[in-house]
User: Fold this.
Amino acid sequence: MVNKNIFSPSRVALAISASLLCFSSAAMASESDKVMELEERLNALEIELIEAKDAAKDTDRVKFSSGDPSPELVSKDGQSTMQFTGRIQLDYVNADPFYTGSKLEYEDGLNEVSFRRVRFGVEGYFSNVWKYSLEFDFDGVSEVEVKDANVNYRGFDNSQIKLGFQKFGFGLEATGSSKNLAFLERASTDTFSPERAVGASWLHYGDGYNFTVGYGVTAVINDDDLNEKQDVFNTRFTMTPIKNSDHLLHIGASALYTQNNSNMEETRYRARPNTKATGRIIDTGKFNTKSTQHYGLEAAYQHRNFLIQAEYMMAKTDDLFIKGDNKGSATINSGYAQAVYTLTGESWRYGTKKGTFKTVKPENAISAGGYGAWELAARIDYADFNDTDAGIYGGEKTDYVIGINWYLENNLKAQFNYVHTKADYEQGFESINDPDVMLYEQDGNIFQARLQYAF
Assistant:
């Protein structure tokens, strides 16, 4: 029997090669699995990071300011915003009967509740440098009115340009918002303020001063009254020569020029006794004039929680015609002085950029268990719409107003006003009790209250 040698170098080499190949394949498979696992984990972490960033952005896209119920919506890049605005003013008025210059007759006394203003709108920014504003008034009495529809470019240093339908600055009280009034109504000087118009205005402001100039054309946005398509030029300058934590002195001047068109040259000045509910007790009636000029002076002084302010305004007409007779020109005027004292110690807020005041914010709101902010206010309002040399017999009046304001929250306040008004006339009117008796004066009382919610 022959023994065979089964050991062979070629077979050993083949076995070793096979073993190495199997080990290498196993190692490569193991490393590949690890790489794939790491990639999956990295992808998962990246997704979590993206979701976390999106969640953070989503949280920041809806912002609420302290005490403000209206949210501000913010775009992903933070370049654009939108916020709802509005104010609701519910009034109660009890007034004596008055002879009104507009209807040349007596109007019955009032005891009513009505909405003075119901306004809603939106405002915000886009592309970071443009501010827009759109506001409508739904007071339930007249048709829905557009109050603001404009854009404001703020890309300049210390300057802004506003384009569109807007209110042009003229005077201290009229330039500010109606939600920041110390009394229920503006003083008789508001008669000289321009109507809203479509146009452009430029505002420049610096350290303690501001200057605005504008041009507009009154348009048929709110109604079809003949007083349309008038050219309006305005300017206003204010400054604060004194401004520190205890004292503030504000002074300013305004000018307004209105050019009537060739088809409409009617002008009229009239005023109510510091209330919206009654008729106008002084009234020049309509007269023809090609243009008017308005001038105004304003001043205010604030010492902590005490604020006084006053304004005087004058209107001058050019080429005045009454019943076809050229009367040359006529001049009428109005002015007021008022004081506000906040019993709870808060101060009115002043905006240097526009030269206007905003009402106080209660330090102890009702919702926080406090009693809100309380203040007393007093005003003397005078208007003389007579120019006998020019044949204008509009009347003369003086209103004495006492007010109490209660700020329950930052956006909720209650107001009460008592008004005693006295009016004198150059031309007499028939007595309501005896038609054979001619009267040349009248006086009466008005009690009114308001609940305002604004945001």
